[in-house]
Write a structure and sequence with these properties.
Number of helices: 19
Subcellular location: Nucleus, Nucleolus
Helix content: over 70%
Structural class: mainly alpha
Organism: Centropus unirufus
Keywords: Coiled coil, Nucleus
Shape: globular
GO biological process, one term: ribosomal small subunit biogenesis
Family: Belongs to the CWC22 family.
CATH architecture of the largest domain: Alpha Horseshoe
CATH topology of the largest domain: Serine Threonine Protein Phosphatase 5, Tetratricopeptide repeat
Number of domains: 2
Distance between the termini: 54 Å
CATH class of the largest domain: Mainly Alpha
Low-confidence stretches: 283-295
Length: about 350
């Protein structure tokens, strides 16, 4: 039973919170709408101030929603506009904290997985993939995630996936080669094998041949072979990024997280965000593991147990390991007892 006055207080609190969030959304929306390369510095500064004045959770959710609405459209987004939006996320990721980039990345990857599965007609898939590619370009995420996505696309290998592979390689191919040439080589080998074993209808098409040629050009570091490849805009914005990022942390803030971890974040927790609390750990609630932890190492003298207590061996398993090490005959005996 909730008394009426408490209920009223809760309702007014909820209304107040909703009003605050609405005001915050308007402010962030206004800043994002005005976003362009010349005023990136002032807008990122204003957003940093908003991060200091409001709760991180509210800011992350608001910013992610607004950016997703702006960038994930059924029509193809202009590349330059996309880069500027991602560069803003990158600057906040480096200056405010890695949870900013992590929250945005998780939302983008989950949406990408969802859109890919439902086989939508529009350009949402390409737009989401461009967001992930530029998050890698601006050092928010490690190449591990990009390779995971490429492996997944190569394993499916239909016409839509071939388009997406080409799109991704054109955007980040040479950076991938610089970061992990061996993984790229393995991916190219796998794609060639897949193209050879693919159905005849795919083999006849020039798109597959073009994709393999693009991969070969990447392997040989030949930029001229890739039509429309222009690294200039990304380089220009990277220079701007270096001037706007306060900390000299550089690549240490890159999120080294795999595709599987991001998609299963609700089940396995967000280990890549420092200090993110999570209560669903199966190893904590599992009753069996508690019973298994009780290790019996025969009878040990009270003197050894007293020593263990003095050394603050405060769990059964720690006491058992301590007793084994103190009472064993030789290394083989210790090894056998520890295994048991």
């Amino acid at each position: 039973y909730v008394p009426p006055q408490v209920r009223r207080a809760q309702e007014t609190l909820d209304d107040k919170k909703r009003e605050e969030l609405g005001r915050l959304k308007k402010m962030v929306n206004g800043l994002i709408n005005r976003l362009s390369e010349p005023n990136l510095s002032s807008i990122s500064g204003q957003l940093e101030e908003l991060y200091m004045a409001n709760s991180r959770k509210d800011m992350n959710e608001t910013l992610t929603d607004i950016l997703m609405n702006a960038c994930v459209t059924p029509v193809a987004m202009p590349a330059r506009l996309m880069m500027e939006h991602v560069l803003l996320v990158s600057i906040l990721h480096h200056n405010v904290g890695i949870e900013v980039g992590a929250h945005f990345l998780e939302a983008v990857v989950k949406k990408f997985d969802e859109v890919c599965k439902c086989d939508a007609e529009g350009k949402e898939c390409e737009n989401l993939l461009a967001l992930i590619a530029h998050l890698y370009n601006f050092h928010v995420v490690h190449c591990l995630l990009i390779f995971d996505i490429l492996k997944k696309l190569v394993s499916i290998f239909t016409e839509k996936e071939i388009e997406l592979i080409l799109f991704l390689l054109k955007n980040v191919g040479f950076s991938l080669r610089k970061d992990d040439a061996l993984a790229l080589k393995e991916l190219i080998t796998e794609a060639q094998r897949k193209a050879n074993t693919a159905e005849k209808k795919l083999q006849d098409q020039t798109r597959v041949r073009f994709m393999l040629e693009t991969m070969l050009a990447l392997k040989n570091n030949d930029m001229r072979k890739i039509p429309g490849y222009d690294p200039e805009p990304v380089e220009k914005l990277r220079k701007l990024q270096r001037t706007l990022v306060h900390s000299s942390s550089g690549k240490e803030t890159q999120l080294r997280v795999s595709l599987d971890s991001l998609l299963r974040a609700d089940q396995v927790g967000r280990w890549w965000i420092v200090g993110s609390s999570w209560s669903g750990a199966p190893m904590i609630t599992d009753a069996n593991s508690k019973t298994q932890q009780k290790v019996h190492v025969g009878k040990v003298s009270s003197k050894i147990m007293e020593l263990a207590r003095k050394q603050r061996m405060n769990t059964d398993i720690r006491r058992s390991i301590f007793c084994v090490l103190m009472t064993c005959e030789d290394f083989m005996d210790a090894f056998e007892k520890l295994l048991r």
